[in-house]
Amino acid sequence: MDGASSETGRGAVPPSAPWLSAEHFCILDTDFNDGADFVRLRRLWEASPGTCISLHYIALCAAPKSSPPPELQALWPLPLPGHHELELNAGALRLTVIFRESPAALRRLKAVCDLILLKEPTLQTAALARLSRFGTAVQSTFQDTETNRALEASGFRLEPAATHIEGTYRVRSKRAKGWVPFSGERHAIVLGAGLAGSAAAASLSRRGWRVSVIEKRAAPALAASGNLTSVISPMLSKDDGVAARLSRASFLTLLQELHRISAGPSSLKWAPCGVLQMARSPKEELLLAETILSLAYPAAFARFLTREEACRHVEQEVPAGGVLFPQGGWVNPPSLCLARMQSAPILLQTGVSVSKLERKDGSWRVFDDSGRPLAEAPVLVLANAFESTRFAQAEHLHFKKVRGQVTHVPASHLPPLGCVLSRDGYLTPPLEGHYSLGATYDFGSEEESLTVECQNVNLARMPLLLEGTSVALDSLLGRVGFRTLTPDRLPVVGAMPDFEAQPAPPGALGTLPRQAGLFTLLGLGSRGVVWSALAGETLAALIEGEAPPLPSDLLEAMDPARFLARKRGLEAPRIPL
Ligand SMILES: Cc1cc2nc3c(=O)[nH]c(=O)nc-3n(C[C@H](O)[C@H](O)[C@H](O)COP(=O)(O)OP(=O)(O)OC[C@H]3O[C@@H](n4cnc5c(N)ncnc54)[C@H](O)[C@@H]3O)c2cc1C
Fold this sequence. Notes:
Number of strands: 29
CATH architecture of the largest domain: 3-Layer(bba) Sandwich
Oligomer: single chain
Radius of gyration: 25 Å
Bound molecules: flavin-adenine dinucleotide
Low-confidence stretches: 1-10, 163-167
Largest sheet: 9 strands, mixed
CATH superfamily of the largest domain: FAD/NAD(P)-binding domain
Distance between the termini: 45 Å
Shape: globular
């Protein structure tokens, strides 16, 4: 392979622009290495875009061997397993960097590629065929009979080598398949203007969709998304399971979004001040230390601190060691919702409650309780949390509505705090003169007002977060919100299943029929701030027919049909809690 690259000076880059007559073009590079091929193709595309308005380059990287070319240095993600999305050329060039966790990375990739740059012999040709459409070219920089045989067995046809690139083969897929991009009127109605609705609306709007958001309250973010501050940190698990991988991807996407918003004029309130997740017991402290050691994360993402190190870091006495997420912090959710709603032209109707949904002539119509039509569009996104199950179309989804009370502690009552502390509850640095201390989990309670009992539960957490600290308040201070929990604690993002359709024959989750044009961004539970940005991007990509920013197993873990699939005995992931 190296020989071929140096001989031609071109690596696997095709001699002329392969995208000239395409509107969207997707390239899979099976070994990004130093990114030289990417740089050449980027230059070629910038010089001769033809009709190609968007280029998607998917780079498989063997971290930490892969190092970015200088032009990507500033944007390059930390070498953490999973997908990382980079936006270049004002969004027209999308670079998906995938640090290969395992051979499954290719199998789990969801995309339809037009060109595959095959850099090393492989027998994973069935995976390549799945990523191809009719006419997809596989271009390799080496000669390997086994690989060519496997490609042909997977449905590709070998073409004569292009004479100007020595040692390069071109193989064309015979398969006529691929995803169908959205082709109707690009207009969506989004119900709810909390973190879920604002994320879905912003992600669709950024893709050029007309978006009408309908919110029953007087303004966005007055329900669960109305907290003063929320914690932004990922989950950890020793086996780096589905929930941990999804939360890491979500956390990183949220950070990108927060930095992007902060780079422009906005009233977003947040601070990447770090989150110290303390152990609840000596046994857990040991487990956290082992977990960090075995996962070998870069210290800029997560590192273990002993209690002494934690005290030095926080500059306060803390009761335990734990994991520091230096990029984590807090955000004021209403300011994030607002920034999203203002990031693109979005039509917002407030003070209007939707009572009925109807699909007619290829469009969704939504009505208020007097039967007055409010809006009509081919796509409808339910982002109205637990209230979504009031609609017949969603009544089979099951959520638990769980009350939570946060206590606001006046800044004068506590010593200065430079980072978020979390340990069976959390304490965030003050915003608008108040620390946020929370939050209770009050299963079965519908109480909308603050209660003394819950405030006392929160105040009792104080010494568990900051050693030797206690706080007494002579009035009720704080906020109540209701979480929307799913049985597996993961969000519900994607196309709504058709609950009435005849059961599909046993097979994969994807075989379940869906309700045309109906999508969900629901079930954000206790981590809605963290989930929301990636959930919005994933949903918009699914609606648009783009390659989603997640591997297939994580998409399935959020699929709204997963509960129905499990009930019907189809293959659907079971997520350990
Ligand atoms: C106490 C507490 C603490 C939390 N702490 C954190 C944290 O530290 N970190 C974190 O990541 N997450 C945290 N969360 C979770 C996070 O706040 C939620 O997951 C998130 O706000 C949910 O957003 P949502 O948009 O789904 O719901 P909501 O914000 O509730 O939005 C749903 C919207 O839909 C509207 N609506 C409902 N029905 C209709 C209708 N028929 N027509 C029109 N509009 C309708 C509602 O008025 C509402 O505005 C916390 C939650 C609580 C309650």
